[in-house]
Amino acid sequence: MSYQGLRKYSLQIGLINCQSKGEKLWQKELPSEVSSEILQKVQEGSAVMRLARKIELPGNGVTIPVITGDPEAAWVAETDKKKVSKPGLDTKLMSAYTLAVIVPFSNQFKRNAESLYEALVQRLPLALAQKFDNTVFGGTTAPGENFDTLATVTGQDIGTDVYKALVAADADISANGGITNGFVLSPQMKSELLLAVDANKRPLFV
Predict the structure, then answer these.
(1) Which of 23, 77, 99, 128 has the fewest CB atoms within 10 Å, counting from its CB?
(2) Ramachandran sector of residue 124 (left: φ over 0; alpha: ψ -120 to 50; beta: rest)
(3) Which long-range contacts (CB under 8 A, 24 or more apart) does 131-136 make?
(4) DSSP label at residue 159
(5) Smallest Cα–Cα separation from 147: which of 90, 99, 89, 88?
(6) Rounded distance, CA 14 to CA 44, Å?
(7) Pairing of strands 9-17, 97-105
(8) What is the pLDDT of residues 125-183, one digit of tens each?
(9) 187-195 vs 162-175: helix axis angle to the nearest 10?
(10) How far is CA 135 from the centre of its chain?
(11) Are 15 and 103 in contact (CB under 8 A)?
């Protein structure tokens, strides 16, 4: 799949001190280089972002043309008029949405900001990537009408025949004009694949 159907995202992370009674509240934004590193790791940790095609998007969004049908060629005689066939075209609005989080921290980290930033770089990317992926797959409500999800796509039951289910999924994608470029597996699905065997009890997936 590509970003024609997904939306550009931005990242906002705020830090807020867990204050004790009588203490002054302290908060700040992350340095740009730390935010950039976190965002890079989010892209690496998100299954959807790794498989999707990235499109640069201005802050106010952009309208892009989408091909909905291909032109059709036809055989003609030497002197006959050539057939005119136009592709189907539509437009799609791509909007920017913000994924944000406020992270509380103790005074211990306030005195050592570098350790705080290192901890955030290690822990935040996975949480943000999981939220993004979960939204794309329909587990979390989309942030707006221009954020497409896979909530209504056809599901395939893998309970009885894992291999057949994967083939059926590929066939469904092809029938709708797409090309399978990868699979996103949950830990549970990975276990199902490893348990799948042929008639001679040999693993189908290794």
Answers:
(1) 77
(2) alpha
(3) 131/99, 132/9, 132/42, 132/46, 132/48, 132/49, 132/99, 133/46, 133/47, 133/48, 133/184, 136/6, 136/48
(4) S
(5) 99
(6) 22
(7) parallel
(8) 888 899 999 999 989 999 988 888 888 888 777 777 888 888 998 998 888 888 888 88
(9) 120
(10) 8
(11) yes
